[in-house]
Amino acid sequence: MIRALIDHLWQSTLFGVAIWSITLALRSNAAAVRHGLWLLASLKFLVPFSALYLAGAAAGLFTPVETEPTLFGAAVQAAAPMISPSLALSVAPSKDPSLLLPALFIAWAMVALGLGVRWLRNWYAADRISRAARPAPGALPDARVTDAEVEPAVAGVLHPVVLLPAALLGRLSEFQLDAVMAHEREHIARHDNLKAHLHSLVEALFWFHPLVWFISRQLMEERERACDEAVLDRGHDAGEYAAGILAVCRHCATAHQRHAVAAIAGDLTTRVRHILGSPPPLALGFTKAFLLSACTLAVGAIPFAAGAMDDALHRHQVLADNTRALWEADIEVRLLHGGEGEEARISATGNEVTIRNTTLRQLVAIAYGVRPWQVEGSGDWLDASRYDIRALVPVAVSEPENLHPFALRGMVNKLLSSRFDLEIYLNKECQTLCGQTLPVSAERAR
Question: Is the pTM here over 0.70, yes or no?
Fold first, then answer.
């Protein structure tokens, strides 16, 4: 558990540093792009690469299990230790039980609980104020006026509304109020409250990591700048907008909350300087957009693909081990009387593999992964008799609960040749352990 946490923390840290370097390269582009990147860095703390790796392993590959590993597979396997659920870290055993880990866990839990309680308390307070607020006269339905001492802000996640303090309405000009309202509506359009709550969860769980608080600051700055850029892009006068923000600051500074999605959030000096003097952001362009999209997909796809490839290699190895074990098996064949119309059944436990109630045609079909009607060959010797086949292997079968029928191929070829004087042909080639192509034909040996 500790090793998995260490893996997750250094991977998330490295990912955050990479995001930081990318945002530096995009300083002249829109703040909304940088905010999206910082949000990815935040969400990375909630989604460990090992979870994607295990999801890929669970999904597997849609390729035959006996397929040989490719060069790409070997390359991913070589990279797997970096993104697997845990690294091969070794810890010297301690003779005396240590109280350090329980103490650290208790400290983490107390701080996380405190942050969670603060988060829920602020959420409840905003919900209570928004329920008590009244519609703003002459404004859109998403605006509410409240007598509480708050700053203009957005409250709610599913049905967000803009809260306006009643004492402030008469102190802003019409143009200033329109610009401030446009800023808050941009927060609603961008779902910034939902994004802020997601990062609050990250803060509560990973409060001990300095990068989390750095990401928090960057999220807030880029979020507010993105809304400022959108307001100016919609044609609002920069001077009136900056004056409106300063007026709100003068009258609502005592009510400001640091994490609020609000009009005076962020570094006001920097915001006003950008509003009044910064040129419009540059378009991202096809090349940067393509590279960002490709990198975003790769972040999730690489560990997922590594897990899927590693699972395929594991299944291939298990198949090879079981094939070798069954080739060396001592085989017992018992003729049955009756059982017509029933399907053959395979069971494996430890050093024994049993195939019950099978005809020779069904046996070949099972081993080669085809339907019985695809096995060519006529005669009563293929369908008339049914058998129980018991194989005792010298080495225990790997993962007997998931024994793949393809592992039976070598044993079936050997059995049919020695016991029934039959040979299996694929594409007119007599089979050993490597038959892979359909259809299958069973013929008497000449």
Answer: no
